[in-house]
Design goal:
This protein is an alpha+beta fold.
Length: 117
């Protein structure tokens, strides 16, 4: 794996309050993004569709190595891997993710419609 892939992924994970790595055709990636955008401004969530990138296979290989999870989406909050779609949705539904983000000095608006807290 090229060190540039590691540098790109690591920078994005650390630079944004929330980073989502997924695939454009994946329904779980889409669901995760929609759920996050319902409670966060888009400027707080960085998304990457790795299937649309020429280095996508290398990025997924690195993310698998980093997380131990071979499938998309990969969701990072404040530089920490929190899981995929199921884990992210569960954290949103229980109110844990908004609290986690607020505790990390990320401005959280009131959850949008359809998101149960």
């Amino acid at each position: 794996m090229a060190s540039s892939v590691k540098a790109i992924v690591d920078r994005i994970i650390l630079e944004y309050p929330v980073a989502v790595w997924g695939k454009s055709y994946c329904p779980y990636t889409k669901l995760t993004k929609e759920a996050l955008f319902a409670v966060l401004p888009r400027s707080k969530v960085h998304t990457e569709d790795i299937d649309l990138r020429p280095d996508g296979d290398a990025i997924q290989a690195y993310l698998t190595l980093l997380t131990g999870k071979p499938t998309v989406p990969y969701v990072f909050v404040d530089g920490e891997f929190i899981g995929g779609s199921e884990e992210t949705i569960a954290l949103l539904q229980t109110g844990t993710l908004p609290a986690l983000l607020a505790a990390r000095d990320t401005r959280m608006p009131t959850p949008g419609p359809g998101v149960t807290t």
